[in-house]
Amino acid sequence: MKNKLHGFLLMAAVLFVSAPVLAQLNIIPLPEKVEERGSPFVIRAQTKISFEKGLKPQAELLAAALSPATGFDFILEEAKTATKGIVLRTGNSGSANKESYRLSVNKDLIQINGQSSAGVFYGIQTLLQMLPVEIYNKQRQKSMNWQVKGVLIEDAPLYPWRGMMLDVSRYFFGKDYVLRFIDMMAMYKMNTLHLHLTDDAGWRMEIKKYPKLTSIGAWRGVGPERTGGYYTQEDMKEMVAYATLRNVDIIPEIELPAHALASIAAYPFLACTGEQHEVPAQHFISKDIYCVGRESTFDFLADVFKETFAIFPSKYIHIGGDEAVYDRWKECPHCQKKKKELGLKTEKELQVYFNQRVQTMVKKYGKTIVGWDEIIEDGLKEKAVGMVWHDEKKAFKAAEAGHYSVMSLTGYCYFDVAESSIPGEIKAAGWLPPISLEKVYQLNPMLKGMDEKYRPLILGASATLWSDQFIHGTILQELPQINEDRSEKYFDYLTFPRMSALAEVCWTPVARQRWTAFEQRLSTHYNRYDQAGYGYRLPQPKLISNEKGDQGYTLKLENTVKGAEIRYTTDGTLPNVHSAVYNGAVTVAKLNDFYAITVMNSNQYSLPLYFPEKYEKFKKYGEFVADWSPSKVKGKDFAVFEMNGSGKISANGSYTLSFWFTEGTSRLDIQSVEIFKNGQKIAEDVHEGFTGGTKKDNEYKFQISNYETGAAFSIKAKVRGDVSNDSNGVVMIRKN
Ligand code: ACM
Ligand code: ZN
């Protein structure tokens, strides 16, 4: 027994020495190799930053990162070697990977060796994550001990493309936000910023040869509704310089042949009909796209690329390529003449021809085209990069043809989608089911079934922050704590913490990824976002147990955020920063009177943890779609009750929609249910049913056979209260 216990203790001791090092360091993405080494280094006012020739910008960047919070003015010195202070050098990073670095810390010296300046920059980011969270604060933090653990870290990324896409077209993010977003990316060693510069709803880059692209194409709406803006070429050069120093490659996207209406509004000759259009203020799939049959289209693009490449040094140019509808090409004499000349059978082949022309055009600048997965078709002359968003098969097709892929899958990477379906959750887009933090962490860019030999062709992953739904102005929910700088803060919220999960997916081999360990490390990062002034989503308190006893329900919660606290109410009201602080189990008489939130630094709080009792019992009928209350029931005459079906209707198949009365004096009578896709009716079930004290035929069945990714679905029911409008209930949907 004693021996056994001894053995157990020994084993526990071993576990404790080997495991906690990483847990204590809390670095995201998880570094490749970490060894604990001797005494810590303390950054002081006298600490000198020495740098090898050529690394002055990185040394200045480090000083600029450390100075505000520490209040120290660091002395920078170019030196071949140094035995004290912080030293930045290239070479000897322990890997041939250009982005690799070695960081060693002891009592006297912090040495960062990057395989290139990029590696040096990443060593700096790791160092910042090892310092107290207050290091990210822009205000001086008094009485701090700026201590860094003694360690040796050797680290390199798995994938070379660790990306984010910002849709600056549908919502114009000013230059300052873009620069700040680059900082957010750099914190997690993300290295590719794809700027969606053009789309139907706005052209955002100054092109000197075509001034109307921005004088007309960058603005939409009239009067007080008018919005827009664009980047001057100087702005974009500044963005490139800022990004380059932070190892971020900015890839510009010029969308073609579709999503181009802003430029067509500016120069109608670009489209088949030549008709005048307006820059749209609502998102829709425009039929008017660039004409493939006229040379003037290619002349225009050649001019645009010439100016684009003088600004963006990236070896890539993103050409969009998604969601082209061919109605106009089918009717256009120029397009049809071209099709005939080339002996092509379909309009899709015309798009391949379009892509080939563009490939040839950009080749002389040494550029590789990137496009949405639609561009991966037979016939591309040169190697291309497909961003796989809605069709995984295209990644396999790309690999077999020797093309590259970047995973941008809608199920993992569309950060404009909500993180949860909790009421009040922030989202920019509602056409997809929620993408939780854990879901992002489950992404593996090497898709299931992909042959290992294709690994070099899988470049990594990229998340999207689309803003097309922002311009509707209807989907975003207001949360009081982040209602200033509306869109920017919302985008921060959609980004953090999900980008940290994506960063680890792109950096750390799958074999070393552990969700629970990641969650543990992340628990310390929320306060870093807060200190840095970024918006972010706090998780709700975690429910550990819920036990029913004589007094009611005893609830045990866990706070999963370091530096935050849990506050709660037991009277059915939403908690705030003044509510009771949770410090141990709470007993409540009625479960659905209990609400708890996570609060950080008294100013940022999570969505509530609560028990939506009245809907729980309907779960067997599927997913919640909507609830009705007297305001939504017109009374004794049938009227339309409209529900959002996007994200609920998420594939072809048969569905059952059911109505469940919960309270009130009137039962709900239902006459019909109709399903609309992008405003067009695609299915219906017309029969009389009701739900009240009793129910009859309260299930409505319909079939979806032409599901389309990205389409908006709405559900319209004709309903009335049998006596008055005093009726409440819930609508559920189930896929059969
Ligand atoms: C896309 O979401 N249309 C690429
Ligand atoms: Zn045409």
TrEMBL record:
Listed GO molecular functions? beta-N-acetylhexosaminidase activity
In its UniProt entry, the species of origin is given as Pedobacter steynii
Question: In this protein, which residues make up the domain named GH29D-like beta-sandwich?
Answer: 552-602
Lineage, opening ranks: Bacteria, Pseudomonadati, Bacteroidota, Sphingobacteriia, Sphingobacteriales
- Glycoside hydrolase family 20 catalytic domain residues: 159-509
Reaction(s) catalyzed by this protein?
Answer: Hydrolysis of terminal non-reducing N-acetyl-D-hexosamine residues in N-acetyl-beta-D-hexosaminides
Q: Where is the signal peptide?
A: 1-23
Query: What keywords would UniProt list here?
Result: Glycosidase, Hydrolase, Signal
Q: Which InterPro entries match?
A: Beta_hexosaminidase_sua/sub (IPR025705), GH (IPR017853), GH29D-like_dom (IPR059177), Glyco_hydro_20_cat (IPR015883), Hex-like_dom2 (IPR029018), HEX_bac_N (IPR015882)
Looking at the record, the residues that make up the Beta-hexosaminidase bacterial type N-terminal domain are 25-156
Question: Know the name of this protein?
Answer: beta-N-acetylhexosaminidase
